[in-house]
Specification:
Blueprint: E1 2-3, H1 6-10, H2 13-20, E2 25-29, E3 32-35, E4 38-46, E5 49-54, E6 59-62, H3 66-80
Antiparallel strand pairs: 1-4, 2-3, 3-4, 4-5, 5-6
Length: about 80
């Protein structure tokens, strides 16, 4: 499993657009999001599909399909709530 490259991220651009709207996240590099000074979320690609690693607590989610993307958005929102 390798870190997602730009051409991989092109496939989930709609998801990236949604993530960019979440308060408290900063995209320091395309597809790599930070919360304050800590890494919060990034993406991997392998033959099985696209995966997101999200922290606090650490979890890996399959975001290849819309259902996985919705699960990631829900997980991100829950972790960002005060």
């Amino acid at each position: 499993m390798r870190h997602a490259r730009d051409q991989d991220l092109d496939r989930i651009e709609d998801l990236l657009v949604q993530l960019r709207t979440l308060p408290g996240l900063v995209e320091k590099k395309r597809g790599v999001f930070y919360r304050k000074s800590r890494a919060f979320l990034h993406f991997h690609e392998d033959p099985r599909g696209m995966f997101a690693d999200i922290s606090d607590p650490d979890e890996r989610l399959d975001v290849t399909e819309p259902s996985g993307q919705a699960a990631l958005m829900a997980a991100a929102r829950a972790r960002l709530e005060p």
